[in-house]
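Problem: given the chain below (183 residues), write out its structure.
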Amino acid sequence: MHGLLLLSACYTAAAAAAAAAAAAAAAATAAAAASNAVLSKELAEEQLAAGANWQQQQQQLQQQQQQQQQEEERGEGDGTAAAAAATAAAPAATGAAAARGWEVLAAAAKGSAAAAAAAAVLLLYYDAAGFWGTEKTQKDKRRQRGTMQQQQQQQQTQQQQQQQQQTQQTQQQQQQGRRQKKE
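Solution.
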């Protein structure tokens, strides 16, 4: 009787732990989702800003090229100064965009840490909940092994019986053949 009460208490404690882990996992998932939503918004804003910067740079380059072409057409200059200025401005703009990209990646890493924490809680929950399921699975496997062994024994018995029958038939045929020769 005490054993049943103890077993019942263990199951109840495991169920309570699993429920607590599930609640913690849900809270962590909600926190990760909120963090990801904030990060997604920030990332979208960063991408829009980067796109706007890129468009402005492209427009400036186009204007500089047009000015250079106009100057060349007029014969007023070779446009070397404008080309040098455009060439000098390009790496600075690229460096600024790369720095913003690293900031976005750092923010995403913070969100990933929250998601990793949520995943760890879920793994703990499934591990706690799966313990009792594992015991049941082992019992099922033992039953299957026992059933398979019985089937193998039955097959071996059937094969032995068939071999004995074949041996008896062969002996009978040999005896009949000897009798026919004698006659």
